[in-house]
UniProtKB/TrEMBL annotation:
Top EC group: oxidoreductase
Keyword Oxidoreductase attributed: yes
InterPro entries xrefs: 2Fe-2S_ferredoxin-like_sf, 2Fe-2S_ferredoxin-type, 2Fe2S_fd_BS, Beta-grasp_dom_sf, DmmA-like_N, FAD-bd_FR_type, FNR_nucleotide-bd, MRET
One GO molecular-function entry: vanillate monooxygenase activity
Protein name: Vanillate O-demethylase reductase subunit
Protein source organism: Metapseudomonas resinovorans NBRC 106553
Segments forming domain FAD-binding FR-type: 1-101
């Protein structure tokens, strides 16, 4: 864990604050790559993930931005209300589950709302390397759009197109048109609300893009239809212990209560922090981290949200 101080807190747009973090003891922060995020341990004990949005060459600070979510489970509310300049926080080292492919041809970046945070860091990296790219930034209205002035003053401002829902039909996002002409080596990166990402990815597929060229990052799990949850058993392969997982509790809850060392972060199946090998049994995947092919192999699952189709799962723990 790294102890950091909040040296700057800015209102970047309506409902969005940015936070500049520096190492509390002084000195450089760990290096990170475009698309990286950090875990932030909040004053109320919650842990939340936020993408780094400053230039990846910077070592003196990390910058994150947080949207105040009306349906907040406590994280964004705590960041906005309880974390002020001068506060001390604990954070993880950066991790990257949304990396850039650096030997690509054309790169298309799509950001929806607060999804600009990892995308902005990618644009900084691509621009500094002289790569060919476009950034399409979509938002309901400019007042709710973070980093507009920063982007307009940047060296890559001519590669960015804003799409505001309240500013006329002519500047609405027409993803299918933009995604025409796929060539081998092209890559698309999208981050934002689930519906926005689903639309961009579906239009890319319709335009002939292969799955290998499509990259996305979820900030929160999409609401899902209520699925009946039954009880089952998990067994730890290394010492043979077995635990009952009742319908109303997650595997992670049960294992943590038993003192099992299980890394946990988002608790929604979007980050992959708790990903665990399955040695026997059939998981019922409820995550948004694994690809469909990875889920079909049934050799790993996310104990924070996924369950079991078989009476028992044997875990590599």
């Amino acid at each position: 864990m790294i102890e950091v101080t909040v040296t700057r807190k800015l209102q970047e747009a309506e409902g969005i604050c940015s936070f500049e973090l520096v190492r509390a003891a002084g000195g450089a922060l760990p290096p990170f790559s475009a698309g990286s995020h950090i875990d932030v341990h909040l004053p109320d004990g919650l842990v939340r993930q936020y993408s780094l949005c400053n230039h990846p060459d910077e070592r003196h600070r990390f910058q994150i931005a947080v949207l105040l979510d009306p349906a907040s489970r406590g994280g964004s509310r705590s960041m906005h209300d309880a974390v002020q300049e001068g506060a001390t926080l604990r954070i993880s080292e950066p991790r990257n589950l949304f990396p850039l492919v650096h030997d690509s041809g054309r790169t298309l970046l799509f950001a929806g709302g607060i999804g600009i945070t990892p995308i902005l860091c990618m644009a900084e990296r691509l621009a500094s390397g002289g790569a060919a790219f476009e950034l399409h930034y979509c938002s309901r209205e400019q007042a709710r759009t973070a980093f507009v002035e920063r982007i307009r003053a940047s060296a890559f401002h001519d590669k960015v197109v804003f799409h505001f829902d309240d500013q006329g039909e002519e500047q609405r996002l027409r993803a299918f048109e933009l995604l025409q002409g796929y060539r081998s080596g092209d890559h698309l990166y999208v981050c934002g609300p689930g519906g926005f990402m689903g639309h961009v990815l579906d239009e890319a597929r319709r335009a002939g893009w292969p799955e290998a060229g499509l990259h996305r990052e979820y900030f929160a799990a999409e609401p899902r239809a209520q699925v009946e949850a039954g009880a089952f058993e998990v067994q730890l392969a290394r010492d043979g212990r077995c635990f009952q997982v009742p319908a109303e509790r997650s595997v992670a809850d049960v294992l943590l209560e038993a003192g099992i060392d299980l890394p946990l972060s988002c608790e929604q199946g979007i980050c992959g922090t708790c990903l665990t090998r399955v040695l026997d049994g059939e998981p019922e995947h409820r995550d948004m981290f694994l690809t469909a092919d990875e889920q079909a192999r049934n050799d790993q699952f996310t104990p924070c949200c996924s369950r079991s189709r078989s009476p028992r799962l044997v875990l590599d723990l």
